[in-house]
Design goal:
Length: 688
């Protein structure tokens, strides 16, 4: 498909050379397979970029999600520990309706959302999701339950898997493997069914899915493969058709929270960053008291399940002036996401000041610490066996821990009791030959005692110690963030997400800030992202400027310059010396990019008969990259241009490609310049 340039320590496939200005280009794709020196191995089908490396800016007020109008926006907050949906009609954007109350629930735990748990039958068919899945699995006979596939907290797999692909697998509680794409698709199909049923009941007739704009939330720190994976799962679930991608928007969780916080009224939040009394209590006297009061207030208002938001900006926002800065800290089950925004008045648009950051510091870290404690007391061999042999009982134990975990507070003095399932006590005796009580006495873990009622009795310091590693990670990350020059003079810090309810975390953030910023916690903090995602779906252009999390580019050939380029990168063709593996930067790490802003490149097929152009995309966390072979630079995706159906009699075909980096996903569009026909352009981050 491309012209041979000769042999340099192995065959090199390259391309013809041409630009708009001269017969031999200064900027030629030399994209090759990943080897120590990519220039010295087999290359991709050759393509020639025809345009220089400039960013062309379109009208940044244009809406990147233009398309058909929708009657309703439905947002799905797909969380690590809990999930739910909410919706708003486009004619009533100030009314956000949250999903129906779920059947089931735990003592002391709000069931406004449902656990992110899924159950498949022994023949791997979808059975149930959420409380229904958990309760059914719990009621199965142990001999039967080991054949069923129960999964929980599986969302983190998309963040932790280095080479995520459509074939990535998850492990069910019984140890059996199942394709991750199937599990995520089942979950999204469940929410589609629930939402459509509720909308149909309201309308009094079957509601047409084509009238819905769907929004799915993901952590801002997720890489592009994980975002694309969620989109692929949505296609598989039938949420939206593949040929209408605009019907689905991927929303970044802290951005959604930020959008909602713009609408806050004073009675819808708690200010724990000041000494003034807010909502009838003094936040500094008791960190957790305000949250408890807020929960009661929310429960009393929850019958309608409808939240009214300001149609412009809330009372809190009226205190902000042009250019004021604030931080959103989204503390979820799996990850903690931090984003820094600046207000742009009078419309209240938002500008990202520093690339989204964070890490796997969510509340499930406390669960892992509890599991480590159990391993210390009872032995890791027993815990591993118990999880496999009695998976439903293990789920019961973690549910019991979850409710006590939520009772942890800085000022707590009385012990916390955690029920041990009977099967745990029974199986341990069979496994070890002695009692659970004996194990506790021998373990030298003096802060956990045995209660004759069949409970582990933890003193408050022991419970607080389980929180410490996770909270330390969050505080360290916040400290590092506030040391950045872009993150100075922060007016507000919004603490959102389910983990934000923890008084221990609230106190730690207070102590870290020392009054530098006001700490604001919205009421019903676990639904902040969900409600913000609905608002984002109604107006996706509200975030006007974002920061690129990585440096993206392609490998090219440049004219070889003596003394500037390494000798081992030199390639000679027709008497001209070229430097291979040069990194042509599309966008740099932490670079500001406006919504609607595009990076433009033009390419030409190596032969008139070539039907598909494939270009490897590389990325790096470094801001400046010289060569695609540098350490830390990796191939992260492919740009595919399908030029079938755009044949022309022109001697040289120019395919002009526009890539958008200012949205929550990277987008590509292309056109054949000679015929003005649209070329199918796609960027794939999952197929490596």
């Amino acid at each position: 498909m491309c012209n041979c340039l000769g042999e340099t320590q192995g065959k090199i496939k390259q391309l013809d050379m041409m630009t708009e200005k001269e017969s031999a280009t200064d900027n030629i794709i030399a994209d090759a397979m990943a080897t120590p020196s990519p220039a010295k191995s087999m290359g991709d089908p050759g393509i020639t970029p025809l345009s220089p490396s400039h960013i062309q800016q379109n009208d940044t007020d244009s809406n990147a999600h233009t398309g058909p109008s929708f009657i309703v926006v439905v947002a799905v907050d797909f969380g690590t520990t809990s999930s739910g949906y909410a919706y708003a009609f486009t004619k009533e954007p100030e009314c956000i309706h949250t999903m129906r109350r779920w059947e089931g629930g735990d003592p002391g735990v709000s069931n406004q959302k449902t656990p992110t748990t899924i159950l498949l039958t022994p023949d791997r068919k979808f059975h149930s999701f959420g409380y229904a899945a958990r309760d059914f699995y719990h009621d199965l006979d142990p001999t039967e339950s080991k054949h069923w596939l129960y999964l929980e907290k599986f969302k983190m797999k998309l963040h932790t898997t280095a080479n995520l692909s459509i074939d990535t697998e998850l492990h069910a509680a019984n140890g059996k493997r199942v394709k991750a794409i199937d599990i995520f698709a089942y979950a999204l199909a469940f929410f589609k069914e629930q939402a459509l049923k509720e909308l149909s009941d309201q309308a009094g007739a079957e509601f047409d899915n084509t009238n819905i704009r769907w929004v799915i939330t993901v952590p801002a720190i997720w890489k592009m493969p994980a975002k694309q994976f969620m989109r692929e799962a949505a296609y598989k679930a039938g949420l939206v058709p593949r040929d209408n991608p605009e019907q689905l928007i991927i929303a970044l969780e802290p951005e959604a929270a930020s959008i909602y916080c713009r609408k806050l009224r004073l009675h819808q939040m708690i200010d724990i960053g000041t000494k003034t009394t807010q909502n009838g209590f003094s936040p500094t006297e008791n960190v957790g008291a305000g949250m408890t009061q807020a929960k009661e207030h929310v429960r009393s208002k929850r019958q309608s399940r409808t939240f009214l938001v300001e149609n412009v900006i809330g009372e809190l926002w009226s205190e902000l002036e042009e250019g004021d800065r604030y931080v959103v800290v989204d503390c979820g089950g799996g990850t903690v996401d931090l984003t820094v925004h600046q207000i742009q008045l009078p419309q209240g648009h938002l500008k990202e000041l520093y690339k989204a950051s964070g890490g796997p510091y969510g509340s499930i870290g406390i669960d892992y610490e509890f599991e480590k404690l159990l391993c210390k007391i009872f032995g890791p061999d027993f815990i591993d066996q118990f999880k496999i042999k009695r998976p439903a009982a293990w789920v019961d134990l973690m549910i019991a821990f979850e409710s006590r975990k939520r009772a942890a507070a800085p000022d707590r003095t009385n012990p916390l009791n955690i029920n041990l399932p009977f099967s745990f006590i029974d199986y341990y005796k069979k496994f070890r030959g002695h009692s659970v009580e004996h194990a506790l006495r021998k373990s030298n873990v003096d802060f956990v005692k045995w209660s004759s009622q069949g409970m582990l009795r933890m003193n408050p310091d022991a419970m607080n110690a389980l929180f410490k590693p996770t909270i330390d990670h969050i505080i360290q990350h916040l400290t590092d963030l506030f040391d950045k020059p872009e993150v100075c003079d922060i007016k507000f810090l919004f603490l959102v997400g389910g983990f934000a309810e923890s008084p221990l975390l609230q106190q730690a953030v207070q102590n870290m800030l020392h009054g530098r910023s006001r700490i604001i916690i919205p009421h019903d903090v676990g639904l902040t992202i969900l409600k913000g995602a609905v608002l984002f779906g109604l107006d996706p252009s509200v975030i006007k400027v974002r920061r690129s999390p990585l440096t993206y580019g392609v490998g090219v050939l440049n004219r070889y310059v003596e003394g500037k380029h390494p000798p081992d990168k030199m390639l000679v063709k027709d008497g001209t010396r070229w430097c291979t593996d040069v990194f042509d930067t599309f966008i740099a790490c932490d670079q500001s990019v406006a919504l609607g802003e595009t990076v433009k490149r033009s390419y030409t097929p190596a032969k008139p008969s070539q039907q598909v152009i494939v270009i490897h995309i590389y990325c790096s966390e470094k801001e400046r990259v010289g060569f695609i072979s540098e350490p830390g630079v990796r191939k992260c995706g492919t740009l595919r241009l399908d030029v079938t159906g755009t044949e022309t009699t022109a001697a040289r075909r120019e395919i002009q490609t526009h890539m958008q980096f200012g949205d929550t996903e990277i987008r590509a569009m292309a056109v054949d310049v000679a015929t003005s026909r649209t070329v199918k352009a796609s960027i794939d981050f999952l197929t490596q």
